[in-house]
Specification:
The complex is a heterodimer of chains A (139) and B (98).
Chain A (H helix, E strand, L loop, with lengths): L1 E3 L1 E5 L9 E5 L1 E8 L2 E9 L7 E3 H6 L8 E6 L5 E12 L6 E8 L9 E2 L10 E4 L4 E4 L1
Parallel strand pairs in A: 5-10, 6-9
Antiparallel strand pairs in A: 1-12, 2-3, 4-5, 4-8, 7-8, 8-9, 11-12
Chain B lengths: L2 E7 L2 E4 L3 H12 L18 E4 L6 E5 L2 H10 L6 E4 L13
Antiparallel strand pairs in B: 1-2, 3-4, 3-5
The chains are: A mainly beta (139), B alpha+beta (98).
Chain lengths: 139, 98
């Protein structure tokens, strides 16, 4: 299945109101837990060890996410975020749903994205990025 | 003349130095030119949750809380709202959690 990078208008500098278009590999996934189901746009991030989603998504699915395994996650800076790893089902359009694990956190900074990482996403697919064509091929 | 093995359009190999032309054709064919941004007026939703329709572009509802945006979209008749947390700062990003 081929998906497209998504174009977002961003401001490269605070000193100017000029906007540029940045293309990001953001794709929709469907999260399923028991009878609950919700769509969620997440950034595909091959540098992320886990799927890390906003805890508010867990609340919509009625997941008591704080009963999951506690995880500490670090980004490029020094600040850590805490989350809880839970089992959910994930579905991509055109593929059957699969069991996966997601770290839900209420500490994802407001400028960041939910990410699809290695454990729980890349392990299930072969993914080819073609930034020149703004194309993501998932098999 | 070199052919780039990875690039073909409608089964026709494309010359390497014509990649820009190829990308333009591809985008036009896919109906997705460079000027076609994902969500219109994204700036006004900064820091909020938006619930998107199935086309992934139309904002059906927005709120500070994901659940409120979700419930509003369901009330509008969207069977499966797609939620997206719009970053509070729309700026270049390198995948940091700090």
């Amino acid at each position: 299945m081929k998906l497209r990078y998504k174009p977002l208008e961003v401001e490269p500098s605070k000193s100017t109101s000029r906007k540029i278009t940045i293309w990001r590999p953001i794709i929709p996934v469907i999260l399923i837990y028991k009878k609950g189901m919700v769509g969620y746009e997440a950034l595909i991030d091959s540098g992320a060890d886990f799927n890390v989603f906003h805890s508010e998504i867990a609340q919509i699915l009625d997941i008591d996410y704080k009963r999951g395994k506690k995880r500490q996650i670090f980004g490029l800076g020094n600040q850590e975020i805490n989350g809880y790893e839970c089992d959910v089902e994930i579905k991509l359009q055109g593929f059957p749903k699969f069991e996966s694990s997601v770290v839900f956190s209420n500490q994802i900074p407001p400028h960041s994205f939910g990410v699809l990482g290695n454990k729980g996403f890349f392990g299930h697919f072969e993914i080819k990025f073609d930034y020149a064509l703004r194309s993501i091929e998932i098999n | 003349m070199r052919l780039h093995k990875n690039y073909s359009f409608a089964g026709i190999p494309v010359l390497r130095y014509n990649q820009k032309v190829y990308r333009l054709c591809y985008n036009l064919f896919m109906g997705l030119g460079n000027s076609n941004i994902w969500i219109e007026n994204l700036q006004k939703y900064r820091g909020k949750w938006v619930a998107l329709d199935e086309d992934e572009k139309t904002v059906v509802a927005s709120d500070e809380k994901a659940k409120n945006a979700y419930n509003s979209a369901v009330k509008e008749g969207v069977k499966l709202p797609i939620l997206f947390k719009v970053p509070s700062v729309l700026a270049p990003y390198i995948g940091s959690f700090s």
